[in-house]
Design goal:
This protein has a 10-stranded antiparallel beta sheet. The radius of gyration is 27 Å and the shape is elongated. By secondary structure, the protein is of the alpha+beta class. Strand 5 and strand 6 form a beta hairpin. It has 14 helices and 10 strands. Among the domains are: 73 residues, lambda repressor-like DNA-binding domains (434 Repressor (Amino-terminal Domain), Orthogonal Bundle); 107 residues. The chain is 54% helix and 17% strand. The protein starts with a helix and ends with a helix.
Length: 306
């Protein structure tokens, strides 16, 4: 899908006063799918195009090509008059600044509001009758403040979605809480949402303190102060296991366990056996394993969205 059509989809949605999540709910698709349409990364299928045209009250041709089919049959004189009128009206009601390539950067209009786009940074700000909308496509972040409340979306794989509703409830990552206090009680201080009670109990268990006690016990009883330091590597493995139990992210568990084990093995070979070579080679494999796990996560997410 070309950029022009993607921009028309953005403009139509904003004119309708809809957030990406609200539009996705009406169409029965994911918010990520709507985001990809508007970033020209994918195209809506025929059924969704028809649904979009019906929702926005325009013809399919107008949605696809930016003009109604009947406009093509008008005479040249009418086109000239219309263009002259549009130019006059634009001078009176809209002020637009363009960059040297002709792409609009700032548009000010009583009807459309204030629209600022920075293509170099991928940032966009729109202030209009429907509210204030701020988006950063490169970071995958979107904030909307309007009559419907506050909407914060992080479009990345591990991001969060936060919406305040008209009835005072809060929706975080698709789950609705009766108040901010209830949401805070079910989220840890990092904003991580636990889907199961086991996951939350696992995270709240003071495992690092247990590791410190085990290290002191081994040091005092067995005198293994040096070797006991390797117990520290159990902490990231424990946290990764908690994430796997709660969210079933197998690829993240594999990535963390492999990286931790590789670093621990290299330090053992170096500090305990004085053989850093060729043990250091295993450290080179860590970014490759992480890239493979990241690729697996993206493939799995695409399969879920398909």
């Amino acid at each position: 899908m070309d950029l022009a059509m993607a921009q028309r989809l953005v403009d139509r949605r904003k004119a309708a006063g809809l957030s990406q999540e609200a539009l996705a709910a009406q169409l029965g698709v994911s918010r990520q799918a709507v985001s990809k349409w508007e970033r020209s990364e994918s195209s809506p299928d025929t059924d969704n195009l028809i649904a979009l045209a019906a929702l926005y009250g325009v013809s399919l041709d107008e949605l696809l090509y930016g003009e109604a089919a009947s406009d093509v049959d008008t005479s040249a004189d009418d086109d000239v008059d219309a263009n002259n009128y549009d130019e006059t009206e634009g001078t009176e009601s809209s002020t637009e600044h363009v960059d040297p390539d002709g792409k609009p950067l700032v548009d000010i209009s009583l009807a459309r509001g204030i629209h600022v786009v920075d293509p170099n940074k991928g940032e966009e700000v729109h202030v209009g009758w429907s509210g204030i909308h701020v988006a950063n496509e490169r970071k995958g972040e979107e904030v909307h403040v309007g009559p419907g409340g506050l909407h914060i979306d992080t479009l990345e794989d591990d991001g969060h979605s936060v919406h305040t509703n008209a009835d005072g409830t809060v929706t975080i990552d698709g789950e609705t809480f009766s108040s901010w206090k209830e949401a805070h009680d079910k989220l840890d201080h990092h904003g991580k949402h636990f889907h199961t009670k086991i996951g939350r109990a696992w995270n709240e268990f003071p495992f690092p303190a247990l590791v410190v006690l085990a290290y002191l016990a081994l040091g005092i009883i067995c005198g293994t102060w040096g070797m006991g330091l390797f117990l520290v590597f159990l902490i990231p493995v424990y946290e990764a296991m908690g994430d796997f139990i709660d969210r079933h992210h197998l690829s993240k568990l594999i990535g963390v366990v492999y990286a931790t084990a590789a670093i621990a093995w290299f330090l053992y070979m170096w500090l305990c056996l004085a053989q850093p070579h060729p043990a250091w080679v295993i450290l080179i494999t860590i970014p490759f394993i992480e890239a493979l796990m990241c690729w697996c996560r993206k493939q799995w997410k695409r399969r879920k969205q398909a």
